Amino acid sequence: MALDQEGIISGEMPFLDHLEELRWRIIKMLAALVIVFVIVFGVIMGSHIDVIDLLVTPIKPYLHGQNLVVTHIVDKFTIMLQIAGVISIVIASPIVGYQLWAFLAPALNKRERKMILPVLTFGSALFLSGVMFCVFVFIPQTMKLMDALPTKALSNMYTADEYFGFLFMTSLAFGAMFELPVVMLIATSVGIVTPQFFSKYRRHAFVAVLFLCELVTPGDLIISTLILFVPVYGLFELGVLLSWVVYRARVKRLAAEALEGGASE
Question: Cβ distance 163 to 81 under 8 Å?
C-alpha cells in the first residue's frame, strides 16, 4: 500500500485495502483519545484546581446556597472520570477530524486538501462553541426556568450524578450540532450536494433542525428548545452561505481545468 509523506493514500486501492486503511485510522483515533484521556485525568487528579466546583459555578445561583448531593460512595471518582472523558473528546477532536479527512483525502484534489487546516480549525472552534454555549447559557437558563416554577409543595435536591450526566450528554450533543456548517461545507466540496439543494429545502431544514433540537433538549420545555434552535438554525444559514462560496470556486476551477484540457488537445 503506497503512502505519501503525510501518510495519505496515493493512487487507487482495492476495497479491502480501503477497509484496512479505515481500520488503522480508527485505531489512531482511539489511541489519541486514550493518550489525551490519561494526560487530562492525571492533570485533574494531580492539580489543586477543583474542576467539579468550576463546572457547578454556572448553576450556583439556582442551588440557593446548597451543594450537589452524592448518593453513592464512588460518585466523586466516577464524575472525575466523566469530566476527563469529555475534556479529552474536546481536545482530541482535531486529531479525530484529521484522521477522517486523511481517509477521504484521495477523493480530493490538491486544492481541496489545502483546506484541511482551516476546516479543522473552524470545526474545532464550532464544537467548542457548542460546548461552551451549553455550559454557560443553556444549562443555567434551564435551571432558571425550573427554579421559577410556582410551587411550594416541592423542594429541590439536585444530585451530582444527575447534573453531570445531563451536563455531559447535552454539551456533547450541542457541540455535535454546532458542526452543521462544517458538514454542509464538506458535502459541497466533494460534490455530494449543491447550495441549490440547501436553498430548495430550506423550509424542510427549518423543521428538521427544530425537531432535532427538541430531541436534544430535555422534557417539553419549548423555551429550552428555542434557546438551542436559534443558534443552530443560524449556523445552517451560515452553512448555506459558505456552501455557495465553495460551490462557485469549485465550478470556476472545474471550468478552468476543462479549458486547459481542451487547449492541450
Answer: no
Alpha carbons 48 and 252: distance in angstroms, whole number = 56
What does the pLDDT look like over 7-61, one tens digit per residue?
444 445 566 777 888 888 899 999 999 999 999 999 988 888 888 888 898 888 8
Instruction: Indicate left, alpha or beta for 14 from its phi (over 0: left) and psi (-120 to 50: alpha).
Output: beta
Q: For residue 69, which phi and psi values (nearest 5 degrees)? A: -105, 135
The amino acid at 226: L
What distances in angstroms separate CA 25 from CA 5, 32, 103, 105, 120, one per listed residue? 16, 11, 7, 12, 16
Closest to 173 measured CA to CA, from 125, 212, 118? 212
For the stretch 122-157, pLDDT in tens is 888 898 899 899 989 998 888 888 777 777 777 778
What pLDDT score does 256 carry?
72
* Distance (Å, whole) CA 189 – CA 185: 6
% the chain with pLDDT above 90 = 20
For 9, phi then psi, to 5°, come to -65, 135
In which region does residue 163 sit, left (phi positive, over 0), alpha (psi from -120 to 50) or beta (all else)? Answer: alpha
- The H or E element spanning position 258 is helix 222-264
Amino acid at 240: V
185: CB partners within 8 A, 6+ apart:
119, 239, 242, 243, 246
